[in-house]
Amino acid sequence: MMASFLTGKTVAFANELFHTVLRINSSRLSINLAHQLSTSSTQDLHLLKSPSRPLQTRLALLSTETARAYPAATGTNQTSVSAETEGGFLKRFIKKMGWLDNSKVRLRMSSCYLYESVADCVNYNEFFTYFNMPNSFNTWFLITELHVWMLLVRAMAEGPEKDAAGRFMRNCIVETMWNDVTTRAKQLAADNPSAVRPQIQLLSEQFQATLMAYDEGISSDDKVLSGALWRRFFSSRCEDYEHLELLVKYVRRQMEMLDKTDRYNFAIKPTVKWLPLIEKPGL
Q1: Contact, 149 vs 211, CB < 8 A?
Q2: Burial zone of 101 (CB within 10 Å; 0-12 exposed, 13-18 middle, 19+ buried)
Q3: Which of 12, 16, 72, 94 could make a disulfide contact with 83, Cβ separation 3.0–4.6 Å?
């Protein structure tokens, strides 16, 4: 509790410091710019305002006036040293606190990359071929759903609480998945777009139920996990139980690899690697 209180105080102090520096620099720029422009020659001001003067000339003059008004930009006096020191301190402070890496913008981008790793890097043909599954939209979704669920389990390890990084990433991954699913469904049903929405709604309901079944399976023994995979992934129609055994082992191996992936390589700069369905020697 004390650590949380100190962290809140530190964040408040840093925000106040950041905005104070911005106000100081903005005021300095406004005052110096106004002073310099008031003493500029009539010819220079005329050229700045003249619409007949080429754009590059006017921009060059404006750049010159700005450099005179705010010498820190050119690094010619003590002001530049002060500005660089202040900016460097803020960057180092923010980086040390981890705000740059943990910002919601970065986490959202990482979530998109994680989903793309599924859509682009999972070997769908291997699943189609080995399990004798039809190359259809529904089969594609079952494979995607399984891998997205594994990402969601790993994401929640970054914090399941409200506003925590893990919960935020989970929501972003799911949002990205549904955007992709909807786009693909619309392309396939171009002649009947009205059928897309109820189909997506049905998939959404099935997805929520599947998450709970898979969560129970991964936290239990292989018997429970195989039951969840048999009902959902194989639609209760798996005739070759060696296929079911293989898929259970695949999920366990993949989850183990995700568990070993550190925070940086998962949430900051995702480098998730998807294993082949059939384990190869040396892997």
Answers
A1: yes
A2: middle
A3: 72
Q: Along the 283 residues of the chain, how does pLDDT read in single tens digits?
A: 434 433 444 445 445 544 554 454 444 444 444 444 344 444 433 333 333 334 443 334 334 443 444 344 334 444 444 444 445 665 565 555 544 445 888 999 999 999 999 999 999 999 999 999 999 999 999 999 999 999 999 999 999 888 889 999 999 999 999 999 999 999 998 888 888 999 999 999 999 999 999 999 999 999 999 999 999 999 999 889 999 999 999 999 999 999 999 999 999 999 999 999 988 765 5
Q: What letter represents residue 277's amino acid?
A: L
Buried b (16+ CB within 10 A) or exposed e, 186-214: eeeeeeeeeebeebeeebeeebeebbebb
Report the distance separating Cα 202 and Cα 129, nearest Å. 27
* Residue spans of alpha helices (H) in the chain: 2-39, 42-49, 55-69, 78-97, 99-102, 104-121, 124-130, 137-156, 165-188, 196-218, 222-232, 241-260, 263
What's the CA gap between 207 and 146, in Å, rounded? 10
Contact yes or no for 102/169 (Cβ under 8 A): no
Q: What is the DSSP letter of 268?
A: I
pTM of the model: 0.65
| Distance (Å) of CA 211 to CA 61, 160, 207 | 62, 15, 6
Q: What is the dihedral of CA 147, 153, 159, 161, to 10 degrees?
A: 110
CA quadruple 137, 142, 144, 148: dihedral, nearest 10 = 150
**Residue 23 identity:** R
User: Measured in whole angstroms, how far is the alpha carbon of residue 119 from the centre of its chain?
Assistant: 15
Measure the CA–CA gap between 53 and 66, rounded to whole angstroms: 19
